Request: fold
Amino acid sequence: MTTHGVVAIGNKNRWVGVYNQQDSFPSCLGEDVWDTIKEYGNLNKFVRDLLKYDDWINFLNKGVCPYCGKKGFGRPYNKIGFLREWTKGKTEDGVRKYFEDLPYSPEYIEKFLHEPESIEFRDNIERTNYPDPECKYHKHEKLRRTNKITSERPSNEWIYVVDPITKQIIVMTGQYRVSGKPIRRLLDIDRLTDDEDWIWNQGFIDNRYAVVTVVDLNGKKPDWNKIHHDGDDMKEF
Reply:
């Protein structure tokens, strides 16, 4: 699911971090951040390594694209939603497990596995260990280590700020408030073509970040599902 997020270094008032395009909610990205820091065992090294990259996935893979295996590029953008799932699952059984944990219905999972792109990605993984080795379904940005996201632009849905001084993860959610007159009415869905963008009839949208909770890195593992639900209840202000 395309849920935009940031993994950052700093404090609740000022931070700088790297972007994450998909599955940024606490029960996925939040738990990944916690587990990764624990695996590192050295918080200062985690901080240094994270800021070498422009994207969370790039950081986890040490600059190797998880879709094609190429190295030295910036964040990968998938043109089709199947890539992420096959990168996570690798095999049909692995993809099933990935979806079941989210969870999705068995009917949806089987339909997904039999899509032409899924079959192509499965065959590519068996042959090369990567789902899209020829870059047919994704592209790369140029690697720019200065391409960071900061606290000055509140436009992402979930933020995980790692504070190396207090040894905490500050979990924040993006809040929004609709104000002003609508910019444009919704397009007629029956006339909407594949090339047209969906236009929200929501007027002007104000954004800000709000702290959902603060996680002690020296404490026990938090309930990330609860944090997810608590944050969802705070989306509007």
